[in-house]
Automatic annotation (TrEMBL):
This is DUF3093 domain-containing protein. InterPro entries: DUF3093 (IPR021443). Residues 145-155 have a biased composition (Low complexity). Residues 145-164 are annotated as: Disordered. Pfam families: DUF3093. The chain crosses the membrane at residues 12-31, 37-55. Keywords: Membrane, Transmembrane, Transmembrane helix.
Amino acid sequence: MDSPYRERLTVPWWWWLAALALAGMMAAEIFLGRPGVLTYVPYAVLVPLVLYALWRLGRIDIEVDDAELRVDDARLPREFIAEAVALDADARRDLLGPHADPLAFVIQRPWIGGAVQIVLDDPADPTPYWVISSRRPGLLAAALGGSSAGPAAPLQRDGASPAG
């Protein structure tokens, strides 16, 4: 029995500080000396708006249990997983760039270097594989029963490495 896995793809902590500073500067520019109650309106609008945007960017949850993989609202039964391979930043870049399949299901966050390629074994599904960003791709791949070491090149649907 594989152990459960859970991860949230949050934004880096320093983005919160930078976003608050940027929202404050933008609100101060919009304010530019208006008297009275209007002084607080740009702050009351921009700061919550920026915080909401960052919260939305960092709300992707990845969960693995005995029955399925859940990534945000997407669900993949484990019986359809043929292979799970941890990818380092270079392999992820190749898989999402020159070796990309337009039918692949991708949830990637550019600020997260690692990812996992999940090759599917479902003849009824045209999706060849999933690519999911992860800060701990080795652990996620292992939780899915795959390889925890990053390959030199990502796998294609048939399990072979692409010639390149």
